[in-house]
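quick one, two chains, predict together pls
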Amino acid sequence: MRRSYTVSLVASACAVFSLAASALLLHRNDRLRPNSTLDEVLYVSSPKVLKRASLGYDGLLADIYWTRAVQYFGYRHSQHANTYNLLFPLLEITTQLDPHLVVAYEFGASFLAPNPPFGAGQPEQAVQLMQYGIRNNPNNWKLYYNLGFVYYVNLKDYKKAADVFAQGSQVPNAHPFMRVLAAQMAQHAGDYDTAKMLWTASYQNSQDRQIRQNAIEHLRSLRVDDDVAKLQQGVTRFGERTGRLPATMTELASAEGLARIPVDPDGHPYDLTPEGRVLIHIPDDYPFATKGLPPGYTPQTKFNYNRQ
Amino acid sequence: MNARIAHIASNTFREAVRDRVLYNLIAFALLLSGAAILVGQISIDIEKLVVINLGLTAVSLFGIVIAIFIGIGLVSKEIEKRTLYTVLSRPVRRWEFIVGKFFGLAGTLVVNTFFMAIGVFAALLYVSHKFVPADALILVALYFIVLEFLIICALALLFSSFSSPLLSAVFAFSLFVIGSFAEDLRGFAAMAHGFTRWVATGAAYLVPNFSAFNVISSIAHEQPVAAQLILNNTLYALFYAALALSGAVLIFEHRNLK
């Protein structure tokens, strides 16, 4: 009995020691071969083969591939990567395994379409993905909305955006703002108000924290773009009127008849350079702003989709 | 049901429980609870989908593995242990033995599926915090899975009635895989010509067609299942199980057990 107990004890200790040693060795191997991870490997790239190989359990496989796509995008995004070679194939496999997985189209397009560092910079693939989604889910108005969004924001193709919003507005139970968006897009595509309406709709339309945060960041940046553009016009008017540039923002505000010095959404006053350029005080706080940025400035990725 | 068949069926069920078959429920519970907690953190917006897809896939796969590995030993193990002779020396007919074994294994799988279904609904409640009327569709998927089990049980018994356990497992699992491709086989038959077409069409109708039973993905998206499909699948499973069971009875009746 005692002998058996000793053998069990030694065997258990041996097993624990061996497990710890093998884990340690693997960890060291990973450090020796930093590029040997499996991130960029897609063993089976054909969705049709995968669908067949799933033996009918394609729904679960689609969930696994969707999770893999989310993880891939999140990891590459957190590394500030400029290339996302596997993202579209992963999304393509996911949606072909389960063509009704609407979340993969909605989020997939928002991963694919924006330019790096905010996304993969592949708006054409985002359009392809959304069109496949619409073919398989023709009564889902949100897919039309997302496709129109990509045309408007990423491809600046206002005509197609208007067409898609109009098509989406015909879908049963479509949100009433689809019709408004279609009309607005056709008449005032490049306006601040149109962009504001679209991002507001995006915020109201999603329950996801990251999507809503993204919409807020865009709305804040849009407001800053609008402010800077108006102030810059004020500087021009001041120059035309006085023959010189305003020395300070206070002088500009007074000349423009503003009650106080103009501030950004965070309450920071805009800066005025001696050359008469209006700048955002902390540009990193407005990652999507296109105006009021210091020369040579590159935006930082302030938020990401990777759930911690 | 014939009392002798009921007796053999209850003994088969007891034996399966004694063989710790229901231990798979622990693995199932761990799998589902782990997935329900983990997926919410590593993916986006598919918590409920994963619980349904993973839960029903696990119910199906666990059951198929149990059906095959228990089913293949039902006859051969009795012969090997020589307990079959004791049974058959009593007023029990060979066909009653086979049918009793079938009902015993099917009963084991139904009980197993029942507990797993409770697990699926519990996990669903955990991730959604409430049930919606569409969740009742999961019961249809579970019913189809049970119908699949009936066919596989009957097939495992058929192979067990004339072959060794290892070969029976290979045959049964191969038929399950082929049955999952039955629609492709039918598509292939439609494209072929002449003699090949006849052979392919015959094979497509001979192998079990499991694809019609797989509604997991559509149910996860709350798409309703046609009542006609439920009726057709029920009848198909009963007829196909009866076909395989009749084959098993025929072979076993003429088998030389000396």
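The two ends of chain A are 51 Å apart (CA to CA).
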